[in-house]
Amino acid sequence: MEFATSPEIAQCFPDLHPAMDARAAVVEANRCLNCFDAPCMGACPTHIDVPGFIRKIAAGNVSGSARTILDANVLGASCSRVCPVEVLCEGACVLHGKHQKPIEIGRLQRFATETFYDAGGRLALRQRDERTQRIACIGAGPASLACAAELRQQGFQVHVIDRRPLPGGLNTYGVAEYKLRAADSLREVEMVRGLGVEFETRDVDAASLEELEREYDAVFLGVGLGAMHRLEVADAHTAGAGIIDALKFIAAYKTGTPLSIGRRVVVIGAGNTAIDAACAAKRLGAETVTLVYRRQRENIPAFDFEYDHALREGVEFLWATLPTAITANDTGLVLTCVAVTQDANGHLTSQPGSEFTIECDAVVPAIGQSPLLELLSQVRGVTMQRGRVAIDRATGQTANPKYFAGGDCVNDGREVVDAVADGKRAALGIADWLLARMEEHSG
C-alpha cells in the first residue's frame, strides 16, 4: 500500500528524535550491561529480549536484532517511536541507579527495525501446519494486527475488517506526525499482510456481526474507542466548523486533507492526544496555542516528557480553568471560561466573579474518547464493565467463548505496546481454545 507524506507536512513535522546511524548505534549498544533477568524486559508489556537485541547490534547482526524484536512485538518499529520508553524500558534501566544516562533502547530498537525494513527484510512464517480454522479481527489497529500476525504464525486463516480506507488504527490516523508517519504505520501493515493476513474495508454492524459469528470459528474485537467526547458547553452549536475534534484534526493533516486551524487555537484537555494536537497546531502555523485544563499541572494525564515537549513548542497552558460557553463573532470564536478550585476529593467548584473570555479561531476538544457501546452492546453474550469489554485477562476471551478482545476497547486507551500485548495474548488464547475444541470433537 503506497502512501506518501506531502512535502509541506514533512517539512512541518521532522522527526522528534532523529534516527541513529550505524556507528552511533554500535557505540550505544556497547554501553549496555547485558543484565541477567534484565528489568527493561519486565517493563516492556511485550517482553522484548532487550539485552539480546542490543547484543546483536553491538556484534553487527542488525537483521538478527530486528528479528528478535519483531518475534516478540510485530509492531516493534512503531513502538520504538511512540512508546513512552522513559517510563517503560528505559525507565527501568539499571544505569539510573549508577547515576548514568539509561541506554537509549527506543532509538536502538528503531535503528534495528528500520534498517531491517529498509534493506527489504520481511517477516518470516514459522514452520507449522496450515490450519483450516478462520478468525475475523474487527478493527485494523495495533491489537488486531498483533493478533492477526500471531494467529498466522500458528497457521490459522485470518481476515481483518476495518471501516477506514487505511489500516493501522491510531498508528495511521491518530499519532502525531513527528512521532510516527502514516507511511511508516502502513509499512508495518504490509509486513503483516505479507504473512497471508487478508484485509477488507467495510462497516460492521449488528447484522454483519451475526454473519461473522456464523462464518468464522472465532472473532477478535479490536475496535478501539469511538469518537471524542462532545464538549458540553453553552452555545457550542453556534461555533460550527470552528470546533474541531482533536483526533479528526490529527487524522486530517496526517492523511493529506488538513483542516483550516487559524492563527489562534485553544485545545481543551491535557492528555497525550491534547498535547499532540496542540503541538501540531503550532507546527502548522498557529501563532498562539493555548491548552486549557480544568485541574492543576500535577493532575494532567499526559506524561511529563510530553508536557515538557509542548512547552518547547511554545504551547501556553491555563490551569484550573473550565470552559462554559462558545460563541461566534465577526473575527472567530469567543470561549468563555471560569476559574475553578479542586477540593481534597477532586470535586471542582467555580469561583464567583472569575469569568473571562479567550478569542480564538478554533477550539480543539481532546477530552477523551467514548466507548463503542452501540456496536459492542450488540455482540451476543459479550458483557461490558464500566464501558470496557470484560475479558479473561490471561486469554482475552469474553463471556461469549467465541469472542476475544483486546486493545483500547478493553484497556480504555493505554499505549500502543499494551494493545500489541493484548492482541498477541488473545491470539494465543484463540489458538488454545480452537485446538482444544478440535480435540474434543475428534475424541
Walk me through the structure.
- This protein has 443 residues and is of the alpha/beta class.
- The chain has 3 domains: 112 residues, Alpha-helical ferredoxin (Fumarate Reductase Iron-sulfur Protein, Chain B, domain 2), CATH 1.10.1060.10; 166 residues, FAD/NAD(P)-binding domain, CATH 3.50.50; 130 residues, FAD/NAD(P)-binding domain (3-Layer(bba) Sandwich), CATH 3.50.50.
- Helix content is 37%, strand content 16%.
- The chain is built from 17 helices and 15 strands.
- The chain has a 5-stranded parallel beta sheet with strand order 3-2-1-4-15, with helices on both faces. A 4-stranded parallel beta sheet has the order 7-6-5-12, covered by helices on one side. Strands 8, 9, 10 and 11 form a 4-stranded antiparallel beta sheet that branches.
- A hairpin with a 2-residue loop joins strand 13 and strand 14.
- The radius of gyration is 23 Å and the shape is globular.
- The mean pLDDT is 93.
